[in-house]
Amino acid sequence: MSSRKPSARARQVAAFKAGADDLGDLFLREQERQDELEEHRDEARYERACASKKRYATRADAREAIRLCAEHGTRGLDCYRCSYCGGWHLTSHPWKNERQPS
Ligand SMILES: [Zn+2]
Fold it and tell me: Does 101 score more than 50 pLDDT?
């Protein structure tokens, strides 16, 4: 394809590249900000998903705890393998384990 206005097109391309560089810079800064936020979110997630919870060494232990809870009237619990400590924790919201809606 040939253009009747190559110089205009060249200017467009140059403008686009300059704009893309600006955007790239913006994107990098935004990425840094997000990384920082993500770090805080990770801490909060760790606190919620692991540090604040009782830890069971095996799935059988967790299952036993769930059974005992059920006997005492707390139902709907499930357990999950913790990606932080490698142990097992109980949760009443199994479908929320991995990803919190943001
Ligand atoms: Zn844990």
Answer: no
